[in-house]
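Entry:
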Amino acid sequence: MVSETTGAAARDVVRSAPVVMLGRGGLVAYGVVHLLVAALAVQVALGDRERVDKKGALQTIAEQWPGVALLWVITVGLSALVVWQLAEAVWGHRGTPVGNRVLRTAVNLAEAALFGVLAWSAASIAASAGAPSKQPSFATVVFGLPGGPFLVGLAGVGLVVGGGYAVYRGITHAFLRELDLAGAGLNRSQLVTRIGQIGWAALGVAYGIPGVLLVVGAVRFDPAQPTGLDAGLQAVAGQPYGPVVLVVLALGLVAFGVHCFFDARYRKA
């Protein structure tokens, strides 16, 4: 009885209006980051070699005034979004079939981890007042561990699978399960659906590119293999019609950024 009471109290806290409001703010911040990634991708398509991964987008925010303060706001919003997703994983899918519950819980946990990493990156950049990080890359660190190439390849496969699932979510409209469009009207609902389809598909491709590079680095046993989203998009830019493909992908990421704004507005609390 005590544990049930404690659990109910915890559920009420994480679903309280302040936490939900901060979580919606985190979704807006997530959308802003993807709009910046899209803008940097266009720069790569035009020949600029700027970093275009999410940390690069956050670094771009830090370079503007008052960027550091905005990064702390983003950190708080994304942290609340982590709490929100964890709460959904624990309490949000009761009464659904076991298979669907496992899948949706896994999605909640994956999104919580993603938002947590991004929140950590935002906080780290804000704490350093926007100074460029000198930390080694993920692949370099993991290659130094026992079984490093296998772990790097596994991470790459995970990104590719995650990217494929993002594309699947877009194609099948699965993201609509998280939204409450009852009062949005037919036209707005159709707009949210189309933008979400395009955005999720583009996000899946964007995640899949560094996943493929991680797998390539693991197969070659090469810790110096570029593995980030920035390296992936620069590799795409070097291919025939690569700049055109990058511009199309950037438009898709813009759609995902806009979808995040709709997500913040219509996400089920």
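The two ends are 26 Å apart (CA to CA).
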